[in-house]
Amino acid sequence: MKIIYHCFGGSHSSVTAAALHLGLIDKHRPPTVDELMSLPYFDKTTEADFGSIRFMGIDEYGNEVYVLGKKSMSERLTHILNGLAQILGVEDQVLVVNAMDRVNISMKLGGFTSRRIGLPSVGRPVVSRGTIKAFFQLVNLVEITRLKALRTKQDAGDII
């Protein structure tokens, strides 16, 4: 299965969710700022990255985990990706996960300042604090996603 976490910039909530999914950060405690900054893609996206599905890793069940920045496409992107998977006949192999509803105002302001305006020295501390504050909401999203992926694999007979 291919799991795609997406958010506005593909740089904070989706990256954190994907890292949680892959066990790159501990789900039992909020990460430090240094741990966040060491994650692949965290607060590192550029304008050229928008719309690119970027590989983060493979989980213990063989699921490929990706991140995507969608800008202002909202749920339209989820519908587009699910529709494309359906057309290709692989809808049971793709799980598209919107991380935007777990984003708080600090993440929005910090991400905007760091990535959009290009002032990471101002925005990174704000987005990092916001991400830490939203951490357990992201853990919840990932746990729901992992259960959906496992259920889909079981339904397909891949896991007994």
Structure description:
By secondary structure, the chain is an alpha/beta fold. It has one domain. Helices cover 48% and strands 14% of the residues. It is built from six helices and four strands, in the order βααββαβααα. The chain has a four-stranded mixed sheet, with helices on both faces. Strand 2 and strand 3 form a beta hairpin. Helix 1 packs across helix 6 and helix 4 runs antiparallel to helix 5 (120-133). The radius of gyration is 15 Å and the shape is globular. The model has no long low-confidence stretch (mean pLDDT 92).
The low-confidence parts are none
**What is the total number of structural domains?**
1
DSSP, total strands: 4
Query: Structural class of the helix and strand makeup?
Result: alpha/beta
Strand % is 5-15%
- Strand line-up of the largest beta sheet: 2-3-1-4
Distance from N terminus to C terminus (CA atoms, Å) equals: 16 Å
The tally of helices reads 6
As a percent range, the share of helical residues equals 40-55%
Round the mean pLDDT to the nearest integer and report it.
92
What order do the helices and strands follow? Answer: EHHEEHEHHH
Rounded radius of gyration (Å): 15 Å
Largest sheet: 4 strands, mixed
Shape: globular
Keywords:
160 residues, alpha/beta, 4-stranded mixed β-sheet, 48% helix, globular
Outline of this structure?
With 160 residues, the protein is an alpha/beta fold. The chain has helices spanning 13-22, 33-37, 74-87, 105-116, 120-133, 135-155, and strands at residues 2-7, 54-58, 64-69, 94-98.
